[in-house]
Amino acid sequence: MEAKTLQETANGKNLLLLVMLRWLAVGGQIVTILFVSVGLGIALPVVPMALVILFLIALNLVSLLRSRAKAAITNGELFAALLFDVGALTVQLYLSGGAMNPFTSLFLLQVILGAVLLPPVPIWILVAFAGACFLGLTRFFRSLDLSAYEHMHGPMGFFDLHVVGMFICFLLAAVLLVLFLTRVTRNLRDQDRRLSELRQQSAEEEHIVRMGLLASGAAHELGTPMATLSVILNDWERMPSLPDELGSEITEMQTALARCKEIVSRILLAAGEARGEEFERTTLGAFIDDVVAEWRETRAPPRLDYISDVGTDTIIASDTAIRQILLNVFDNALEASPAWVGIEAFRRGDLLTITVRDRGAGFAPEILANFGKPYQSTKKRSGSGLGLFLVVNVLRKLGGTVVARNDHSLGAAVEVCLPIGALSIEGEQIHVVG
Questions:
Q1: Which residues of 131-153 are buried (b: 16+ CB within 10 A; e: fewer)?
Q2: Sheet of 401-406, strands arranged across
Q3: For residues 6 and 289, what is the distance between their CA atoms, to the nearest angstrom?
C-alpha cells in the first residue's frame, strides 16, 4: 500500500510538470501565430487555432484542480493528458499546413514524455496514436496561401522559412526535454529516497519487535526467581535471632526487589501484557509532574530545574511506554551532566513539547547525524544506544518526533514533541487555574 502511495505521489508531481509544459506550449503557440500572421503576413485560421489554445488552457485548469484534490493521480490520467496534448497538436498542424509544418517534430516530444511517465502498454498506444495522426496529416490538412510570402522573398523563401522553423522546433524540443527530464529524474530520486527510508523504518520496527519479545520473555523468566527471593527474604525477616544490622539489610533488599518487580510489570505492560493493574486516569500536567517526581526520587539528581506550563490540561490515560521513554531521556541527560539537568514541558496547540537539557560535552557530530539509530553511542559498553533508538521509534509510532541538538557551549538538548491526541481520552479537557 505504501509503494502504491509513493507511485501516486510521483504521478501527482508529473501531472504538474505536464501542466507547466502545456503553459509553455500555449505561450509558444500564441507567439508563433502572431509572428506568422503579423510578422510574415501569412494568413492563418486564427479563430479555430485560438479555440485549440483555449481548450489547452481549460485542460490545464482542470488538471490543477485535479492535482489539489485528495484523490490519487493514476497512470491512466497521465495517459489521457498526453492523448489530449497529441490531439491538440494534430489540430493545430492540420490548420497550418499539415505534415509540411516543421513543428510536426513535436510529436516525438510527446512520445518521449510518455516513454518516461507511462507503463509499456500505454506507451505503445500513444506511439500508435501519434503515428496515425502524423500519417493523417500527410493526406488531410488545410493548405496555407504562401503566394504573397514567395512573391516578397523569392521562390526559395518558403524553403528558408521551413529550415528556420525546423531549427526553432529542434531548439524548443531540446529545451523542454531537458527541463522535463531533469524534474522527472529528481522526482524519481525522491521516490527512491522515500522507499529507502521506509525500508529502514521497517527494519527498525522489526528490530523493536524482536527486542520487545526478548524483554517480555526475560520479564516472564525473572518472575519465578524474584518470587523465590521474596519468600526467602520474608522467612529471614521472621527469624527471631536475626541480628539488627542484617535486618536492615534485608529491608533494603526487599525494597530493591519490589523495585525490580515494578520494572518487570512495566515491561510486560508496555509489551501489551498487563498484569491486572487497573486503568489509571490522570491529566496531562499531573502525568508529567508524576514522571518527573518519580525520576527525581529514584535518581536523586543534585540539581533539577523543572518548568511545566500545559495551559488547558487534558484528561489522558497514564501510558507506561511514554513514561519509560521520558525516563530514558532524563537518564541520558543525567549521565552526560551529573551536576545539573533542566526539564521544560510546554503545550503548543495540540502538541506537547518536553525539552531536556544538560551541561555535558554535547553530542558528537556522528551521533547527531545518526540520531535514533540503534547502537549509536559513545559509551563503551554493550547495548549502548538502544535507549534513544526506542525513544525515536515509540514516538514515531504515536505520530511524534524527537530532535537532538547542541546548545553551543552549554551542553545538549533533546526535544520531544508528542500529539496530545495520542494520550487523550475522547478529547476531554479541563481548565487548570493559576
A1: eebbeebeeebeebebeebeeee
A2: 304-309, 341-348, 351-358, 412-419, 401-406
A3: 42
**Can you tell me the distance from the alpha carbon of 346 to that of 211, in angstroms, rounded to the nearest whole number?**
32
Count CA atoms within 13 Å of residue 322 on its CB side. 26
Cβ atoms of 338 and 390 within 8 Å: the answer is: no
The Cα 106–Cα 176 span in angstroms is 10
Q: Strand 341-348 vs strand 304-309: parallel, antiparallel, or unpaired?
A: parallel
Distance of alpha carbon 324 from the chain centroid: 26
| CA–CA distance, 158 with 178 (Å, rounded to integer) | 30
The rounded distance, in Å, linking the Cα atoms of 328 and 313 is 24
Find the angle CA(145)-CA(151)-CA(156) to the nearest 5 degrees: 90
- Phi–psi pair at 172, nearest 5 degrees: -65, -45
pTM of the complete model beyond 0.70:
no
**Which residue type does 160 have?**
D
Tell me the residue type at 421.
Answer: G
Beta bridge partners of 315: 283
Helix (H) or strand (E) holding 360: none
The interaxial angle of helices 75-94 and 106-117, nearest 10 deg, is: 180
* pLDDT tens by residue, the chain, 434 residues: 444 455 667 778 778 888 888 898 898 889 888 888 887 777 788 899 999 999 999 999 998 888 887 777 888 888 999 999 999 999 999 998 888 888 888 898 889 888 888 888 999 999 999 999 999 999 998 887 766 565 566 555 556 676 777 888 888 888 888 887 787 777 777 777 877 777 776 766 666 656 665 665 566 567 667 777 877 877 777 777 767 667 778 778 888 887 787 776 656 555 544 444 444 678 888 889 999 998 998 888 999 999 998 876 778 877 777 887 788 889 888 988 999 999 999 988 888 999 999 998 888 887 777 776 655 555 544 444 556 666 777 777 778 888 888 876 678 999 999 888 777 654 444 433 33
d(CA 94, CA 101): 9
- DSSP for 368-423 reads HHTTTSTT--S--STTTTHHHHHHHHHHHHTT-EEEEEE-TTS-EEEEEEEEGGGT
* Number of residues in the chain: 434
